[in-house]
Design brief:
By secondary structure, the chain is of the alpha+beta class. 40% of the residues lie in helices and 13% in strands. The protein has one domain: CBS-domain (Roll). The chain has six helices and three strands. Strands 1-2-3 form a three-stranded mixed β-sheet.
Length: 97
């Protein structure tokens, strides 16, 4: 079963190290191009890894921009960011897993 395979993996391995953090003023067209180039399905939104305010996923772009006929060139990440972002500190991962 695929689900049980993920339970035996560490969170950092599932999440990957290929995280991208973009500024909240970045427009959706630019973010989508970068997501395609890096072959990722989401981007973190914030100033840097210490100041992440949320996340935007492919689904967010589809449901909050495309399905509402909003312009991806005028809509910013800030407008569709899912927030607050729940995080786990690296030193606490061993307790969870």
């Amino acid at each position: 079963m695929v689900y049980s395979e993920h339970l035996s993996r560490k969170t950092i391995d599932v999440a990957g190290k290929n995280q991208v953090i973009l500024d909240e003023s970045t427009n959706l067209a630019e973010a989508a191009k970068l997501m395609k180039k890096k072959q990722i399905s989401s981007v973190l939104v914030g100033q840097d890894s210490q100041h992440v305010i949320g996340i935007v996923t492919e689904r967010d772009i589809l449901y909050r921009v495309v399905s509402e006929s909003r312009s991806p060139f005028k809509t910013t990440l800030k407008e569709i960011t899912s927030s607050p972002l729940v995080t786990v500190e690296k030193q606490h991962l061993s307790r969870i897993l």
